[in-house]
Every structure is written in structure tokens, then in C-alpha cells.
Specification:
Chain B: One of its GO terms (biological process) is DNA-templated transcription initiation. Chain B: Pfam families: Sigma70_r2 (PF04542), Sigma70_r4_2 (PF08281). The complex is a heterodimer of chains A (about 130) and B (about 180). Chain A has about 130 residues and is mainly α. Chain A has three helices and no strands. Chain A has three domains: about 40 residues; about 45 residues; about 35 residues. Chain B folds into two domains: about 90 residues, Rna Polymerase Sigma Factor, Chain: A; about 70 residues, Winged helix-like DNA-binding domain superfamily/Winged helix DNA-binding domain (Arc Repressor Mutant, subunit A). By secondary structure, chain B is mainly alpha-helical. Chain B is globular, with a radius of gyration of 18 Å. The chains are: A mainly alpha (about 130), B mainly alpha (about 180). The interface between A and B is medium-sized, with 31 and 37 residues.
Chain lengths: ~130, ~180
């Protein structure tokens, strides 16, 4: 009796699973067909011609080159300012140079530590 | 083969080859974004943005996936970034507006606006995206995980839960229709 019940349970479970897979297949088919229909009927802007596309590529590349040049100039300017400040400090006193380096090291360390602690807190509380 | 040659030329700075590549994939990308966003205006903006990104990053394309897959990966991530930045309320309002616009566009083709589309449009983008990629575009779970930059388990659970939600929504619609 107990064996038969188990077998019945298994068959029932398999039937339910089969039904659920069938339902899922039907749902997916419905979604795919609906999306196909949407693709056919929804008005999509026409593809730009090759000349327009080429102009777009050239303009964007030029913009990128300008942006890169600007970034490089900013980088060089900032680097020059920092180096000249350090050169100035070193010419006055070498001890001041070491002290300013130590101060910078401490500030960066504290900043990194605060950032790290903040990030850890964010991860620990997903519902926040 | 022709596409591979074009990609190689584009990576060496050939503007025409890159323009041809973008032109060939424009319609595919636009239709993909239309289905993903369910918002024609946003889809158009994202198509432009994706093409700009492709121009910038073409040298990084390594040929591991098809060029169209690479493009929709970029588009998917841009869309996800945009959605994450927006507040839930703002997102909902925009989606409702776009939803009405699309409904209006499809109004004269009754058969095109189905309950399945409506249910899909109501579904959150986090679930809609993996369902589309898996069951409409036929990508594998691990490919979707890379495309969406989320763990494999999350992709599987989102596809499963998304389908459950869709089924529930469609059953509700059916019941309402029967009662009405």
C-alpha cells in the first residue's frame, strides 16, 4: 500500500512537472510570437545612409582626439605644478620636503581607510 | 568573413569600414533596444549612445562573440546604468508614458498589441532583460551573466521569477476578461 502511494506520488509529481514545463513552453512561445509581431508593426527610424554614418564616425573620432589632447594637457600642467612646488620646498629646506611628504602620506592613508570602512558598511547592510 | 575583415579594417582606423559595420547593425540594435526598454524615445537615444561607445571601444573588440552581441552587450550595460541612476518613481512615470506611446503606435494593428507584450512592459527591467536575452535571442545563461555583469545564479533566478510573474499577470488578465 505504502509502495503504491509512493509510486502514485511520483507519477503525480511528474505530471505536475510536465504540466508546468508545458505551461512554460506555451508562455515562452506566446512571448516570442508577440515580440515578433511587435517587431513587424512598430515603426523603427530608418537606418541612416552610409555617408551620414561616416560623418558621425569622423566627428566622434575628432571629438575624442580633442578630449584626449585636453586631458593630456591638464595632466602635464598638474604634474608641472606639483613638481615645481616640491622643487621650491626642497630648495628652501630638505626637512620641510620630508615633513610635507609624511603629511601627504597620512592624509591619503586616512582617506583610504574612511573609504574602505564606508564600502564595508554598504556591503553589510543590503536593506539600507 | 566580410564582417571580420571590416572589423580588422575598422580597428586599424578605417572610418568607412566602421561606418559600414554600424550601419549593418543599426536596425538590429534599434529593435533590440525597443524590446528591452519598451520606450521608443529611450531606445533611439540609447542606440546613438551605443554607437558612440562602439566608435570609442572598437579597438577593444576581441572577436570572442559576434559583433552584434558585442554591440548589444554595450547597449545593455548603458541601459542598466541609466536605469540604476534614475529613481524608482521617475522610472515608473517614464515607463508609463512610453507604454502609452507604444500602445498608441500599435493601436491600429490590434493583433500587434498583445497581453504578453503588456505584461512584459509592466515587468521590471531587471527581469525583462534576462528573459528576452534567454528566450528571444537564445543566449546561454553564462553569456547573459557576462552581458549584464551579474552572477550566473542571479540570471537563472531572474529568468525563473520573471516568467512566474508573467504567468501570474497573464492569468489575472484572463480571469478579468472572463469576468468582464
Amino acid at each position: 500500500m505504502s509502495k503504491r502511494t509512493k509510486k502514485d506520488d511520483i507519477i503525480q509529481q511528474q505530471d505536475a512537472e510536465g504540466e508546468s514545463f508545458l505551461e512554460q513552453d506555451e508562455l515562452i512561445t506566446e512571448i516570442v510570437n508577440s515580440l515578433d509581431q511587435m517587431d513587424q508593426h512598430l515603426s523603427v527610424p530608418s537606418t541612416p545612409n552610409l555617408l551620414v554614418m561616416q560623418q558621425l564616425v569622423m566627428q566622434h573620432k575628432q571629438l575624442l582626439r580633442q578630449r584626449n589632447r585636453k586631458d593630456l594637457l591638464i595632466f602635464i600642467a598638474v604634474a608641472l605644478i606639483i613638481v615645481s612646488i616640491y622643487a621650491g620646498v626642497a630648495s628652501v629646506s630638505f626637512v620641510w620636503l620630508i615633513l610635507s611628504q609624511l603629511l601627504l602620506f597620512v592624509i591619503v592613508g586616512v582617506y583610504a581607510l574612511i573609504g574602505y570602512t564606508h564600502a564595508q558598511k554598504k556591503v553589510k547592510s543590503p536593506h539600507a | 568573413m566580410e564582417e571580420l575583415q571590416r572589423i580588422a579594417r575598422a580597428q586599424h582606423g578605417d572610418d568607412q569600414a566602421l561606418a559600414e559595420l554600424l550601419q549593418d547593425n543599426y536596425s538590429f540594435l534599434m529593435k533590440y533596444l525597443m524590446k528591452v526598454t519598451m520606450n521608443p524615445t529611450l531606445a533611439e537615444d540609447l542606440t546613438q549612445e551605443t554607437m558612440m561607445k562602439c566608435i570609442e571601444k572598437i579597438s577593444l573588440y576581441n572577436g570572442e562573440s559576434k559583433f552584434s552581441s558585442w554591440m548589444i552587450t554595450i547597449a545593455t550595460r548603458l541601459y542598466m546604468d541609466q536605469m540604476r541612476r534614475k529613481k524608482v518613481e521617475e522610472r515608473w512615470r517614464e515607463q508609463q508614458h512610453a507604454f502609452k506611446k507604444m500602445q498608441w503606435q500599435l493601436q491600429h494593428q490590434q493583433e500587434a498589441w498583445t497581453e504578453a507584450i503588456e505584461a512584459l512592459a509592466v515587468l521590471g527591467y531587471e527581469w525583462r532583460l534576462p528573459i528576452l536575452l534567454k528566450h528571444y535571442y537564445g543566449y546561454a545563461y553564462d553569456e547573459i551573466a557576462i552581458m549584464m555583469d551579474i552572477p550566473l545564479g542571479t540570471v537563472k533566478s531572474r529568468v525563473f521569477n520573471g516568467l512566474q510573474q508573467l504567468r501570474k499577470e497573464l492569468k489575472q488578465d484572463e480571469q478579468e476578461n472572463e469576468e468582464g
